[in-house]
Amino acid sequence: MKIKRDISWLAFNHRVLQEAQDEDVHLYDRLRFLGIFSNNLDEFYRVRVGTLTKMLTLNKNSAKIHLEDRPEQILQNILETSQKLQGQFDRTFAQIIKSMGGQYRIYLRNERQLNPDQKEWVQNYFEDKVRTQIVPLMIESMPKTPMLRDRSIYLACMLGSSLNSMLQRFALIEVPENNLPRFIRLPFSGDETHIILLEDIIKGNLYNLFAPFGFDRFKSYIIKVTRDADMDMDNGFHSDLISELRKNLKKRSTGKATRFVYDKRMDPQLLDYLTKRLDLSKNANLISGGRIHNFKAFMNFPKEVFSDIVPRPKPFVHPLLKQPCRIMSVIEDRDVLLHFPYHSFDSVIDLLREAAIDPAVQSIHMTVYRLAKESKVINALLNAVRNGKKVTVILELKARFDEEANLQWKTILEEEGIQVFVGVPEMKVHAKLCLIRKREFNKTINYGFISTGNFHEGTAGLYGDHLLMTTKTNIVQDIQKIFQCLSDNNPNLEILKECKTLITTPHQMRPFFQAAIKKEIQQKKKNRRMIVKLNSLVDPILIHDIQQAAKAGVEVDLIVRGIFTANIHQEKYKTPIKAISIVDQYLEHGRVFIFNNDGDPKVYISSADWMVRNLDHRVEVACPIYSRTFRQELHDIYEIQLRENVKARILDPNLNNRYVKTDESEEECRSQIEIYNYLIHKEY
């Protein structure tokens, strides 16, 4: 039986929650994992639950989306699983808060736990910083129901009077966490650290807001609405992509509610009023929780209050690319394979900066999906065009939740003279490619790089990815062909079939890997083996082929971080499939495929997961690794991951997230630490 993708995703987020529950993890990082869990769940409700809710009203003939079987049952399973996880979340948070006090004397104080000096300080802070940032909504007197903003938290208030029992009103206050810090350190003369949340400062000053109107009794609770953020893009358009995207971005803020989270202590009268007034249906997933919501803020909990945080090992510059050096000269001599976040992303910036100022460089082409807020990559491209280079960017405007930022980047790039193309109708350009063309001494040299992750210096410090820098003719010619295809307002994707080395979607990748799996099955030697490293494994065709390989006796090792819908535990396999997921400090993001190939290993890196959306509805690239050294390097890295016995969970049909068991005599292997040590001691 196939595992439902949405339930599998919730199991992945449970693995994130397990990191917050792990007492061997530092309390600061445990808080961060609670924040990551919460942020993940928000996005899940904004996209997948929104899509499933739409499926309830669509029929299979008219739907533009792939319909799941029995979406109403999936939604019910999601609600039940989410409530179970919420209970674990609340207990975990309570335990962390208790440990912070006992171990570090760090305390979260609410408005009722302040000493007289702190009360005065909080009142002054409210008057100086907060009052002008908030506008209470007296919702009973409003003819139209206010639209609560997605991803914002609100104080839902009941206002009363000790002098007039008939005087009762309801109000909403948006907590201005985008304009003010969520965590505020309180004055305290002892050796304790006291922190108050912004919403509790507002709670403690409700009298100052409402007393002039005759109110002196208050009850207040935090609520949050999550809205459907999936975009109903008209896939038939192209010329009017910008206006269509902007129209959908406006709709996103007013999308249908997919979840309403509230303080479980909320007065029933207020809860009933809000659900009716906000027109929250049963499908809105009413979920009770604690007094704090929008836990994503805990990803940025003040680090300085902890005295014993051991910093993560710093990314190091690849030995061949240490400055000062001419990176293009290095790549002319030999390919370079970078592994993030162990290697520093600075080398990529250095190469782009070098290309921007080298008089012999004629042009730079790059695909862009997600960028850092203050992108050094973009700065290098802007400098290149100012230095007279021809710069072309394939900018994917439909990168989910980065659409608005990418629209702004489009304007910035075009104003500077960079040629921008905005992708392909009905598809997303998800391939991570760059091509630098240099003409010197009557000789043209093309430098290409291919990555499994975005050209984003921020996430490169947290995401596990691989990036190949090369001048190999067969690879750069294919990169050139891909840019030739995409540098058109009406791209003809049939051109991608002409690639002879790189494997592309939507035409080539699935059949290519099907053939590779089949070849592994047909090998005569006993050491038939394949290692598949992915973010998500969902594609039913490739899952079937993996199962056929196991039935034939091929040793199959799967390392899948997130969604995993393959029911791989069957007795009829000659060789049991090993499937694990690793969740640790770094986000496992690389896609790598290793086939033993009768003793002559074939190794590929790719931007694509094995999902229908990636293989059929995106432009993706997989690249063969020719260097024997690099093949061994990747093989070693993933053998380390397969030995992981600290942060690895077993992927099974029951989605229990059991940790890989270890024998007492077995040496501990935490793969992300082992990989760092492996790479930093490697000689070149």
List keywords for this structure.
single chain, 684 residues, alpha/beta, polyphosphate kinase like, Endonuclease, Chain A, 3 domains, 8-stranded mixed β-sheet, 18 helices
How is this fold's topology laid out?
Layout: H1 5-21, H2 27-55, H3 71-104, E1 106-109, H4 116-130, E2 153-160, E3 168-174, E4 183-186, E5 193-197, H5 198-203, H6 206-210, E6 217-227, H7 241-252, E7 257-263, H8 268-277, E8 286-289, H9 327-333, E9 336-340, H10 346-357, E10 361-368, H11 376-386, E11 390-395, H12 403-415, E12 419-421, E13 428-429, E14 432-440, E15 443-451, E16 463-470, H13 473-486, E17 503-504, H14 509-522, E18 529-534, H15 540-551, E19 555-560, E20 578-582, E21 587-588, E22 591-595, E23 602-606, H16 612-617, E24 618-619, E25 621-624, H17 628-642, E26 648-650, H18 671-680
Parallel strand pairs: 1-5, 7-8, 10-11, 11-12, 13-24, 16-21, 18-19, 19-20
Antiparallel strand pairs: 2-3, 2-6, 4-5, 6-7, 9-16, 10-14, 14-15, 15-16, 17-25, 18-22, 20-26, 22-23, 23-25
Helix pairs in contact: 1-2, 1-3, 2-3, 10-11, 14-15, 17-18
The CATH topology of the largest domain comes to polyphosphate kinase like
Biggest sheet features: 8 strands, mixed
Q: How large is the share of residues in beta strands?
A: 15-25%
Name of the CATH architecture of the largest domain: 2-Layer Sandwich
CATH C-level category of the largest domain: Alpha Beta
Mean pLDDT: 92
The helicity comes to 25-40%
How many separate domains? 3
Unreliable residue runs: 61-65, 234-239
* Rg over C-alpha atoms, rounded to the nearest angstrom: 27 Å
Structural class: alpha/beta
